[in-house]
Specification:
Blueprint (H helix, E strand, L loop, with lengths): L1 H55 L4 E7 L7 E8 L1 H8 L10 E4 L2 H5 L2 E5 L3 E2 L5 E5 L5 E4 L5 E7 L10 E8 L2 E4 L3 E2 L7 H15 L4 H11 L4 H13 L3 H14 L13 H14 L2
Antiparallel strand pairs: 1-2, 2-8, 3-7, 4-5, 4-9, 6-8, 9-10, 9-11
Helix pairs in contact: 4-5, 4-6, 5-6, 6-7, 7-8
Length: 284
């Protein structure tokens, strides 16, 4: 009898343990069931965010450079189109054959209908005042980490560009809109040297045949500045007067400002490179 009572007690205890385990486990399972849709939703949102980033983050970038002219004359805007994404891949250590190039199909309409310039506090610059000067001729453009394409625009007259305001550009390349940096518009040139310097910079990029006059004015106004000789050399090289160009490049190098305790100037690599190139060419 006692043995039967002991067995019944053990069975009852085991049943109680099973009941308690079932009760404790059920909320946990229910909790897991409740979390499963939440986890799926979070995963779906993450995928959607990644797809959104892929659409909204452009694979290409633009930078803007402004070379202002005189109030009644034109100003030059240079847009440079490149890929910061590919540049970053190169910086991350990827080899050239591991980096997939980016392709872009473009035509003249890409650089005219798709461009807009903006002034802070002044809205969009009137498109009638903007003209495309030069753009890439290739319809199929391929970008590598080192590729930079340049697009040149004229804004006329310069008086539209109020000093102190900032100029920026937006270029629409479906489905992206590329936004440039903002450039603060400088005051109008108030001396002959500054006027000639701006004219030289514009001519060097747009019409080198007009460069020599501006270069000679620079030399006349500040004969100890390397800038006049630099632009003089470029004008002479454009005219294929290589011996005279080499002489002017040497004069520019001689006048290039040296570093001091308070100011540091990088070595004029571009001048040295030009001198080296012309020496080799003249020695043939």
């Amino acid at each position: 009898m006692k043995k039967n009572i002991l067995i019944l007690g053990m069975v009852a205890a085991l049943a109680a343990v099973i009941i308690v385990f079932t009760v404790l486990k059920k909320p946990s399972e229910e909790k897991g069931t409740d979390l499963e849709p939440v986890e799926k939703k979070a995963a779906a949102e993450k995928v959607a965010a990644e797809k959104k980033d892929q659409i909204e983050v452009p694979p290409l970038n633009i930078s803007l450079e402004l070379i202002p002219g005189q109030a009644h004359d034109k100003s030059l805007v240079v847009l440079r189109l490149f890929s910061r994404k590919l540049q970053q891949q190169r910086l991350d250590g990827k080899k050239s054959d591991e980096i997939s190039p980016i392709s872009l199909t473009a035509d003249e309409n890409t650089w005219t209908a798709g461009i807009a310039f903006f002034l802070t506090g002044g809205g969009q610059v009137d498109k009638e005042r903007i003209s495309l000067l030069r753009a890439p001729k290739d319809k199929e453009m391929r970008f590598s980490p080192s590729t930079v394409f340049q697009i040149f625009y004229e804004i006329s007259p310069t008086s539209l560009l109020t000093p102190g305001k900032q100029l920026s550009a937006a270029l629409h390349l479906d489905p992206y809109t590329l936004e440039s940096n903002r450039v603060t518009i400088p005051p109008l040139a108030d001396n002959e040297f500054e006027r000639a310097l701006r004219a030289a910079r514009i001519a060097s990029l747009t019409d080198p045949s007009q460069l020599l006059d501006a270069a000679e004015t620079l030399i006349q106004e500040q004969p100890e500045s390397y800038l006049g000789y630099w632009y003089q050399a470029r004008a002479l090289e454009y005219r294929k007067d290589y011996e005279a160009a080499l002489e002017s490049y040497n004069a520019a190098l001689k006048r290039y400002p040296p570093s001091s305790e308070t100011e540091h100037y990088e070595p004029p690599v571009y001048i040295v490179r030009k001198i080296t190139q012309l020496r080799k060419q003249l020695s043939r």
